[in-house]
Design goal:
With 384 residues, this protein is α+β, with helices and mostly antiparallel strands. The chain is built from 13 helices and 16 strands. Strands 11, 12, 13, 14, 15 and 16 form a six-stranded antiparallel β-sheet that branches. A four-stranded mixed β-sheet has the order 3-2-1-6, with helices on both faces. Strands 7-10-8-9 form a four-stranded antiparallel β-sheet. The termini are far apart. The structure holds adenosine-5'-diphosphate (ADP) and magnesium ion (MG).
Length: 384
């Protein structure tokens, strides 16, 4: 073959190798599996090669032929294999091919990772920090924004500093609650009205969250929240409509149409989220054009204030009596099944599920490249 003939040979572009990480130690393990299955089914296989990576409920990372089946079959970690640093991923129990070996988790093997994980040890910056150390681009917020959004007490301080509208609240350390419960309750009653919401600062899925209508409820609610966290939040409760918006992008994010959730219970509790299957989603939310404009604006402001990246769902509470809008929280890894609010809102805004996944991978790679532009070593000779 002549040299010119060689040059004419069409080059097939290499597919982008994506790791989809799912499962994990949080109470939302099963939601994560459903989201990851949706993503793996919809992803454009002409463009992406998919490497599924599962994390068992004990925290063991597995990869191989079919880690999804392994997790669904309830594979558990055994002995000293539990919670190891997953630099080399062991093949799943379902792998009976007899082949040995493992999958390396690094930037030579994977071009980008989608951590489809919720709650602590998934959405809180820990996995993001680990992926930073490996040098692999990943979908969604980085360490700092993930950690801030996971801690409701810190997130509120950041929102307050930027004049974003949040409901009045108090934060107490568990140590103070244990020693001086009467003073804690007195401070709440002096500054807030019933009903109040009691919450652990770091959790999600409404776990440990209760509505207190009276002093007795407040004692019970704080006692329960203290089971889950060393920081406790008491917040002014309102009769609220739940308005949510999807945000997409890095430095120049865009907001979807807003949606509304009609919970099956008196508030959007754990049972209403995961047990009842009866909460309704209204897309777009039946609110005025002015209100839509305001929540979209606030959603993008909140997102940029905490320096989110890739995606986040921004949740609001709208006072049923006054229509006033309050920022509730930012979820940096929202539910991502094809019928979840985050992708549904984008679908209603003109970005389908498969295209959304594609955009998220591109945003992850762009952000990684942008970070790579920063000079890291400090040149002492240039010090002034
Ligand atoms: N201040 C409040 N007033 C009225 N409802 C609230 C308030 N805070 C929380 N809720 C209700 O509790 C649910 C869960 O609270 P949230 O702070 O969103 O915690 P999580 O991170 O677990 O979703 C909300 O979706 C809403 O239904
Ligand atoms: Mg919430």
């Amino acid at each position: 073959m002549t040299e010119s003939a060689t040059n004419r040979t069409p080059q097939v572009p290499r597919k982008i190798r994506v790791g989809i990480v799912f499962g994990g130690r949080s109470g939302e393990h099963e939601v994560s599996l459903t989201s990851a299955q949706g993503i793996m089914k919809a992803i454009d296989r002409n463009k992406y090669d998919v490497v599924p990576i599962g994390i068992t409920k004990e925290g063991r990372w597995i990869a191989g032929n079919d880690p999804m089946s392994s997790l669904k079959a309830g594979e558990t970690a055994s002995g000293n294999q539990a919670i190891q640093v997953p630099l080399e991923l062991h093949r799943g129990a379902q792998d009976d091919s007899g082949e040995g070996g493992s999958v390396r988790l690094d930037s030579k093997t994977l071009d980008v990772i989608f951590p489809v994980l919720h709650g602590p040890h998934g959405e809180d910056g820990t996995v993001q920090g680990f992926l930073d150390l490996l040098g692999v681009p990943y979908v969604g917020a980085g360490v700092m924004a993930s950690a801030v959004c996971m801690d409701k007490a810190i997130a509120k301080q950041v929102f307050l500093a930027h004049d974003l509208p949040i409901l009045p609240y108090r934060v107490f350390l568990r140590r103070v609650w244990d020693k001086q419960p009467q003073q804690v309750v007195a401070e709440c009653e002096a500054t807030l009205d019933y009903p109040m919401f009691t919450k652990p600062a770091n959790l999600g899925s409404s776990v440990g969250i209760n509505k207190a209508h009276c002093r007795e409820d407040l004692f019970a609610g704080l006692t329960e929240a203290a089971l889950y966290d060393r920081k406790l939040i008491v917040e002014q409760g309102i009769e609220a409509r739940e308005i949510e918006i999807s945000v997409l992008g890095n430095d120049d994010p865009i907001a979807s149409v807003p949606g509304e959730i009609i919970p099956s219970r008196s508030f959007y509790s754990y049972a209403a989220k995961y047990l009842d299957d009866a909460s309704d989603l209204l897309i777009p939310a039946p609110i005025s054009a002015d209100q839509t404009g305001r929540v979209k604006h606030l959603a993008v402001q909140a997102y940029t204030t905490v320096d989110c990246a890739g995606m986040a769902r921004v949740d609001f509470l709208m006072d049923k009596a006054t229509d006033e809008i309050w920022l509730n929280e930012i979820n940096t890894i929202p539910g991502f099944t094809p019928i979840s609010m985050y992708p549904k809102l984008w679908e209603a805004s003109g970005i389908g599920y498969t295209e959304l996944i594609d955009r998220l991978f591109q945003l992850a790679i762009e952000r990684h490249e942008d970070e790579g532009r920063s000079v890291t070593p400090f040149d002492v000779s240039k010090a002034t």
